[in-house]
Amino acid sequence: MPKKTVTLDYDRCCPEKCTDGVCLAALECEYGSLKQEAPYELPDLVPAKWCHGCAKCARVCPAKAINVV
Questions:
Q1: Which of 3, 22, 43, 56 is the most exposed place for a label (fewest CB within 10 A)?
Q2: How far apart (Å, rounded) are the C-alpha atoms in residues 69 and 3?
């Protein structure tokens, strides 16, 4: 069975919904799979960092922009 990972729906992502524009999902990811360069900017998935599929980021995202696949 394939390992779980996350996708980020940039159309739904809205950093303004996070405290001070800092992506809550990126803060929650202990593996560094999500990265935000500056507050209010869209976060990016970091291909070099291995997503462990824990879905912690998806649970805290207020915009529900992160999906586990």
A1: 3
A2: 9
pLDDT in tens, 3-14: 888 999 999 999
Q: Which residues contact 43 (CB under 8 A, 6 or more apart)?
A: 8, 13, 15, 23, 25, 26, 34, 35, 36
Question: Which pLDDT tens digit goes with each residue over 24-53?
Answer: 999 999 999 999 999 999 999 998 888 999
Domain boundaries, the chain: 6-68
The two structure tokens encoding residue 52? 């462990």
CATH C-level class of 6-68: alpha beta
